[in-house]
Structures are given as C-alpha cells and as structure tokens.
User: Fold this.
Amino acid sequence: MKLPETQVAVVEAASATEVRTVESLADELDHKPASITRAAFELEDEGLLDVIESTDESVSLTDEGRTYLEDGLPEIRLYEAALEAADGDPVEMGEVIGASGLEGGAVDIALSNLARKGYGEIDSGEISPDPDADPDADEEVTALEAIESGDADLVAEDTLDQLERRGLIERSERTVRSVQLTDEGVTALMEGIEVAEAVDRLTSELLTSGEWRDVEFSEYNVAADAPDIDGGKHHPLRSMAERVKDVLVGMGFEEMQGPHADAEFWINDCLFMPQDHPARTHWDQFALDVPPMGALPDGVRERVEGAHREGVGEDGQGYHSPWGEEMARQIDLRGHTTSLSARYLSGIAEGDLEPPQRYFSIEKAYRNDEIDATHLLEFFQIEGWVMAEDLSVRDLMGTFTEFYEQFGITDLQFKPTYNPYTEPSFELFGEHPVTGEVVEIGNSGIFRPEMLEPLGVDCDVMAWGLALERLMMLVTGAEDIRDVHGTLVDLDYLRTEEVRY
Assistant:
C-alpha cells in the first residue's frame, strides 16, 4: 500500500493498544497539529485509524483571582482586621475597613462574603467577628492554590462554580483528538506501507516534463475540520435598517437627518409637551452637562410659547403652566426622532415645505428605560410623516398596511392611545412568530394644531414612530433584543444569522 508521507508517519507512530493524542504525535513527528489532524481523518476514511474526540476542560485564575491568591481574599483580610480590633466586642465598620487596607469594590466584596462564610456578623454599622472561625480552612483559598498549581481536578464542582461567579477563575473547553490503529491498519503495517510521491496541485512543470503520469495526486477531504474564520458582515439590525430605507424610498419618502443631542425646544416644546411633564425629568431622558443652545428661532419660539400658554385657535386653552426659554434651550439626548420632524416641518432644516411631502428617518433615540427583552437605553426609531390636505386615520392605517406587508407582517392590530402632540392617536401591535406574544411595534397619529400652527404648517400631517428592533424581532423571531444589540449581544447569533432581504 502506498500512502502520502505524513499518513505513513502517522500510521507508524500510532498504536493498536494505546490511544495517542494528535498533540503527542505532532511533537514526536515534528509536524504541525493541523497536518497530523488532516492525515488522521484521511486515514480514518481509509479505515486504517479511529479518530476519537473528547472534551478537555481547563481552569485558570483571572487577574483578580491571582491578586487574591497573593494578597488574601477580601473577606479574610476584613475578618483578620476585625478580630484584631474587636477584643471580644463589636467594632465600627469604618475602623475595620481602614485597618484591612481594602479599597473600592473590594470593600463590598468583603462585606458580602464575610457573613456568607460565617466569619462574623454585620449589624448597625458594626462588625462582630467569630473568634472560632478558621480562615486557614477556607475552601476557596485552597481551591485557588490548587488551580494555580495545576490541580483543578481536585477542586469540588460547587467551589469552582462559586469562584466562577466571583470572577476569580475562567473555564474553557477544547476538543482533544486522539488516534488508535484499527485491525485494518495493523494488517496494512504488517503487509508493508510505502511512501507515495504525492502532489496537491497540477503545475506547468509537471505537464511539460510528463512527470504528472508518475505522481499521485492528493485527494481533497471536504469533510475534514477546518478553522472557523469569521469574516466581516453587516450587523442584522443595520441590514434591517437598510431594508426599511429601501421600502420607504420606494414608497416615495425622502430621508431626514439631524442632531442626536438637541435643545429641549425641538425635542419636547415643539411637540406641545408641557415643561412640567414627568417624561421631561431625568428619570426618562438624558440631560447633558453642556452649555445651552444659543438663540432659538424667534418666530417659532414665540408661537410655541403662545401655544403652551394660551393654546391655538378660538377654543385653545394651552396648559396654563410655567414655560421658560431657559429650560427650552437645555441640551438633551433626543428621546425620540420626532425632534427631526419638528425641525423639518418648521422650515429650519430644509426651508419652507409645500404639500404634499413625505419624509422619514431611521436614527437612534435615547431613553432611561428599564432594560429588558424589548427595551434598551438606546434604540432605532423609524420616524415618518406625510404632509397633505384632508388626511385621515384610514390613510395612516393604509400606509402601515402597505409598509408592513413588505416584511410579511399582515396581522397588525391598532389601539387608541394618548399623545400630547397627536389627536387622534393609536399604537400598533404585531404577533411574535415564536412566542405568539402581541408586541407593541409603534405609535402614531395626526399632529395636533397646537403643534403644527406654531411650526407654520396649515395642512394635515400624519406621523409615526416605529421601533426598528421590534420589527426585526417579528421578522427574524429573535426573542430578546439584548441578544442582538447592546453590551450583552450574542456574537454567535451575529455570525450565523442568515441574510434576509
């Protein structure tokens, strides 16, 4: 039997009675592990070798774990300081912390683990150390020492779990491949195996010399393992944004752009939102510690102030609540991209606009929301509006029906709601394809006269703010937006998510 040189070396080094790892064969034969692995799989296909795969878990100390191994666990340092200072009585926490030399986050770590391990009690700002506690028998210290010396397999699993939760160790897994000769491999060795001259490509030299007739060409094993290479690709959310943009441009819309940080005047005041509205506090929006915006456009500013104080039209009431230019000029991160709509409708962004007009934006907005499966502190809003005569809710619903049909969503639900800047107003809902849950996907309505007249608009404007992330969840079936976007993003999902268009 003739085999390529590397395969012959692997067969001769393998054993029928002993399982040998690819790493050990690579060291012995002075070959790269990848070439030994490739040869092993090729020999397995020939029936000469068995390739055995197993998982090897390794445990190592983090930088924090190594620091605690050298300096002592924070709770033990705190206990020893308390024991020395207590003299049988409770001692002030501040005194013990100072004596322990702990600083910053290590203090909280020490306090939370002191009672858990039975080293003492904390009550009313005083620490009572247990004189019978034995830090020398601390299982976590013993475990850190064992891991550092390479004896992690001697550490109990629950102790490893606790150390991992504390961020003191890192666990990693790798696939270990080993080989063993089969009966066919033993027979082949006994009968004799020769090295065959093998080439992996047909060259011009082989053709011109005629040597191609006497060589053996290597076969490609398309099933052999290869290293994973994660090339660059568009983020699924960015791809969804581009798809939305194509759909809206196809529906005749133009794109708006504007500042992420803007004056409250454009973010809230122009939207007829009173300055004492709870949504304008730091609990809902992010204020920036920067100088306020300069002078606001006089005509628009005066009309917006008038709408807030007295209302619009003969029956207008306004809010009869405080309104001040100082607050209107404060800079915030926009909580919605309707601030762009206000800039465009007022003529500040593009000059005076004559109906009919259609505009949209797909931009980030920022809100101090509680983070959960459908909320992040920043999100993409699909802002849009249509300026025309005699618009109605039917026009608005028809626009949504046409838009969402482009994404295969045909089960829209509408619910009346209240917005300070639209009347009538309604929310949009769609059914999640995996969970079956009905998810809010947007808000919309017809802009009120109290918003339009101060901006100089004398015809109807229907508008909406739709959630790009929610749309992506309905299209892809993603159940938690934190897996797709943000600090907890699932990288495997981003690498493997299929292209949708």
Notes: The longest helix spans residues 236-250.
